UniProtKB/TrEMBL annotation:
Entry keyword Signal: yes
Name of the protein described by the UniProt record: Sulfotransferase family protein
Signal sequence range: 1-17
GO molecular function: chondroitin 4-sulfotransferase activity
PANTHER family linked to this entry: PROTEIN CBG14245 (PTHR22900:SF5), PROTEIN CBG14245-RELATED (PTHR22900)
Alphabetically ordered keywords of this record: Signal
Listed SUPFAM superfamilies: P-loop containing nucleoside triphosphate hydrolases (SSF52540)
Highest taxon of the lineage: Eukaryota
GO cellular component: membrane
Length: 264
C-alpha cells in the first residue's frame, strides 16, 4: 500500500502542469526575520543572499556604536553565531559614538533567483547531503510539487531546508513595504560595498567606520561557502534544461521581477 502511494505521488509530480505559483502563501510570508540595530538600521534576513556576512558587518558597527572594544573577525569561518549573538546584542551597553538618524533605515538583499537556487541546492543537497540523492532537476520538480500543492513536510529537517529555498518575495513584506531599501547581490565586491554605503549613509553611520566594517565583503567568507566554479556548474545545469528552468521560473516568478527591477 505504501509503495502504491509513493508511485501515485511520483506520477502526479511528473504529470502536473507547470504554472506560476499563485500568491496564496500569505500564512507563510515571513515578517519576523527583521533584526533592528540601535544605530538606526533594520536588516531583514532572506536565506541564501549573503546574510551571514551582512550580520557580521552590522555586528562590527554595533560594537563601534556602543564603543565596545573588539578585534575584527576577518576570515573564512563566518557563521550566523557571531559575537553579537553570543552576547545577546550587548543589552547593557548604552554609549552612543555618533548621532544616529531619527528615521529607521530598513533594508534587505535580493539575489538572482537562478544563482540563489543553485547555491541553495549545492549547500543542502551537495554539501549536507539532505536531498535523498535527488539531482538538481529532480529537486526542482519536487520543490515545485511541494509548494504548489501546499504540502507540509513531515520532518523539521525537511521543513528547515524548504524554508531556505522559499521565494525571496515571501520575506520582509516586500510586496507592501515601500520603505525597505534593496541591495542587489553581486559578486562585484566594489559594487556591493557601494550599495551598502548608500544604506549606511542614510542611517548616518560614519563613513570611515562603515568602510572598515565593509572589508568583510572582500576578506571574509562563510564556513560553508561553495567555490564559484561549483555554483557555475549547477547554474549551467539549470539554464540548459528547459524543464528545470520551467520549474525554477514557476517557483520564483516574482523573484525574477523583483531582481530585474533592482538591476536597473
Amino acid at each position: 500500500m505504501f509503495i502504491f502511494f509513493v508511485l501515485l505521488a511520483t506520477m502526479l509530480e511528473s504529470t502536473e502542469t507547470v504554472t506560476d505559483l499563485p500568491d496564496y502563501h500569505v500564512d507563510l510570508r515571513m515578517s519576523s526575520q527583521t533584526k533592528p540595530y540601535p544605530y538606526g538600521v533594520e536588516f531583514c534576513v532572506i536565506p541564501k543572499t549573503g546574510s551571514m556576512i551582512t550580520t557580521e558587518i552590522l555586528c562590527d558597527l554595533l560594537r563601534d556604536y556602543r564603543e565596545i572594544p573588539y578585534k575584527h573577525n576577518f576570515g573564512k569561518n563566518i557563521s550566523g553565531i557571531n559575537a553579537c549573538v553570543n552576547n545577546t546584542f550587548y543589552p547593557d551597553a548604552h554609549l552612543e559614538k555618533w548621532k544616529r538618524s531619527t528615521k529607521i533605515v530598513r533594508f534587505t538583499i535580493v539575489r538572482d533567483p537562478i544563482e540563489r537556487f543553485a547555491s541553495y541546492y549545492g549547500h543542502f543537497c551537495g554539501m549536507l547531503n539532505q536531498c535523498e540523492g535527488k539531482d538538481i532537476h529532480q529537486y526542482s520538480r519536487w520543490m515545485y510539487f511541494m509548494l504548489n500543492n501546499k504540502i507540509k513536510p513531515k520532518t523539521h529537517l525537511t521543513m528547515g531546508r524548504l524554508f531556505h529555498g522559499y521565494p525571496q518575495s515571501w520575506f520582509c513584506n516586500l510586496g507592501s513595504d515601500k520603505e525597505i531599501q534593496i541591495i542587489r547581490y553581486t559578486h562585484n565586491k566594489k559594487e556591493m560595498a557601494k550599495q551598502f554605503l548608500r544604506i549606511l549613509k542614510k542611517a548616518k553611520v560614519p563613513k570611515k567606520l562603515a568602510k572598515r566594517a565593509l572589508k568583510h565583503l572582500k576578506k571574509s567568507s562563510t564556513v560553508h561557502a561553495a567555490k564559484h566554479s561549483e555554483r557555475q556548474k549547477l547554474r549551467e545545469q539549470i539554464v540548459t534544461n528547459p524543464t528545470t528552468m520551467e520549474h525554477v521560473r514557476a517557483i520564483y516568478h516574482d523573484d525574477f521581477e523583483l531582481f530585474n527591477k533592482h538591476s536597473q
